[in-house]
Amino acid sequence: MTGLEKIIEQILMDAQTKAQENISQAKAQADSILAEARLQAQNQAESIRKKSALDMENYKKSAASANDLYRRTEVLKAKQEVISQIIRAAYENVCNREPDSYFAMLETLLGKNVQALDGILYLSEKDLMRMPEGFADRVSEIAKSVGGTLTVSPTGKAIENGFVLVYGGVEDNCSIKALFDAKRDEMQDVVNEILYRREA
Asked: Which domain holds residue 12?
């Protein structure tokens, strides 16, 4: 083997050794990069899993809260409907009393609203038709008891029931509907207390 061949062989061996080293280094780097990528992927997967579990828990809580709110809203609506039905039934019961009982109630109502002035009491057309004998006299007596005068108008007022007092052009609406409307919140509270006090 000539000197030139030895040199070439040495160069080839050196190149092969260097190539092997480069390949080993590249493989080691690739393994390191792959291990790092695996670790990052595992960390990301764990982070995603935790976030997903947290999101799912939050969603369950949110859904349960929304469901509970919906249920409570529906229960409240049902309660309000029951209360409204009771108040409506009470109103109809008052309006549909027998004439003697109904007009006795109007006299009591008048006693709470009469003033020591000269005035006129208006009934509805329906109540004028069924007004019992002596009612106008009792109205006059109730007014006199407080130092006023009151006459029952022969003309009906556009109200369903009860009466309207007029003193010097100022009207005081004492219809049963107006009274129920004015006391509606108070009646709702009372009915609610009676019906649902056991839930507390």
From this structure: 1-96
